[in-house]
Amino acid sequence: MTWSWKRSIRARYALAVALFSLIVLSALGATLDLAIRYKVETMTFDEAERVASQWSAVARSGDVPRRIPAYAPIDLIQVVDVHQGVVASSKMASATRPLSQVRPPPDDRFQRYIECRRPGHCLVLVAIRLTPAPDSGVVYAGLPEPDVLSTHRLEYVIGAGIALTVAVAAWTTWVLVGRTLRPVEAIRARISEITVSDLSLRVPVPPGRDEIAQLAVTANQTLAHLEGAVEQQRRFASTTSHELRTPITGLRMQLEEAVRYPDDVDPHETIRTALAATDRLEAIVEDLLQLARLRAAEPTPPEQIDLGELVATEVNAQPGRVPAGVRACRALVIRGHRMQLIRVLDNLLANAQRHAESAVDVTVERDGDEAVVAVTDDGPGVAPAHRERIFERFVRLDDSRRRDPGGSGLGLAISRDIARAHNGCLKVEDSPRGARFALRLPLIERLHTPSGDPSINGFAHDDIGDEDLRERLVGTGRPARVQEDRELSFYPPTA
Q1: pLDDT digit string (tens) for 138-158?
Q2: Which helix (H) or strand (E) holds 112?
Q3: Distance in angstroms (rounded) separating the CA atoms of residues 474 and 315
Q4: What's the total number of domains in the chain?
Q5: Structural domain includes residue 187
C-alpha cells in the first residue's frame, strides 16, 4: 500500500519525529564536535607549553644537550638561536631546519599556533622566547596536528551517529503509531461496511480504556441510537402512510362511486363526506408539520412566562362540552415558547373534554423546583397498561376512536415532544376518578420587570389591586375571585 505523508497520520508523525530528532541531534552533534576539538587542542597546547617551558629554563642555563630527549606525545623539540640556527633538537625534529619562522616578541614571549607548511601537514607548536633581549633564542615544542583536528573523521562519526539515531527514532515512531492506529483502521473498515439498510453492525472495541477505546464505545452508542432512530422513522413512515392511505382511499371510492353512478348517489352527501375526509387529512398533515417543526431549530428565543396566568387565560377562553374550572397559583415563572405551550394545553383540554362526564378540573401548582399543570376529567380514565402507549404516534384507543373518529392520533405525541423540548415531561398520573394528565416544567427565578419589580408578564402585582388583576388576567367577564393566598381561581359560567 502506498502511503502519502499528507494523508497518513503514521507517516506525518514519523516525519515529524525524524525532523525534530535531526534538528536536536544536529545541534547536539555540532556542540559535541566543537567541544571535542577545543578539548584536544587545549590539551595539546598545554602539554607542548609544559615541555617548552621546561627546556626554556635549561636553555637559559646553557646546559642543553645536542640531542634533546622527547616526551610523549611531544616529540618535536628545538632550540633555535637568533639567526634561525638549530642549537639542539629532538630525534624527530630536524637538526638543521627550524620548525617554524615565528619569533615571539619581547613583550609576549609565549606563542601558541598551528603552522601548516602544506595541506594536510600541520604542526601544533608552542614558541617561547628565552629572554626579552634582542639576541634571545627560541624554544619550539610541538607535534603533528592530531587526526581529530586535521581531518573530518570526528564529524563523520557524529553524523553517522545522528543519522542512525534519527532512523531508529523514525522507525520506532512508525511502528508505535501504526500499532496505536491499528484499532482505528479496524473501526474505519467496520464503519465502511455499515449502511443505512443495515445498522446492526458495531465497531470493534480495543482492550483498555484509552481514548481509542472510548471512541469505539461512543461510536457503538451512536450507532445504537442511530439504529433506533432509523427504525423509529421507518415505523413512523409506515404508520403515516397507512393513516394517510385510509382517508384517501375512502375519499377516492366515494368520488368514483359518484362519477360512475350519478343517478344513485346524492352529490351533496358525497361532497359533505369528501369534506370530512379532507378535514381529517388536513389535521394529520398539520400535526405532521408540527412534529417536523419541533425537531427543527426554534426560530424564536424562549420567553419568561407566568404559567398560572397562561393556563387560566387559556382555560377561560376555551368553550367546552362540560364546564372546566381552574385553580392557578401565581408567580410560577417558566422559560418557554408561548404558542407551543398553548398547543399542549389545547390538546390536554380537548382530550379531557372528549372523555369527561360532567366536569374538567385544571390546577397549576408548585412541586419543588417544578411547576405542575394537571388536567383531570371524571371520565373512564386510562388503564395503567395504556398510559405510555397513548403517547405514541397514531395510537388511538377504542374509546377515543368512538368519541372522536376524525382525530389524527398525534396530539398527545406532539404534546409530549413539546414538554421534552421545554426540559419537562408529560405523563398520566394516578387519579381517584377519570384521567389525570400532569405537565411538569422547570421553574426559573421570579419574573422581573425592567425596573426590577416582581411581575407577571409585565403586571406589577404590588401596584395593582385585586379587581385590576382579575380584569387583566381574565378579561372576559367570566366570574373569578382572588383568594387570600393569592391563588387565582376561575370558575366556568353556570347554565
Answers
A1: 999 999 988 888 888 899 999
A2: strand 110-118
A3: 10
A4: 3
A5: no
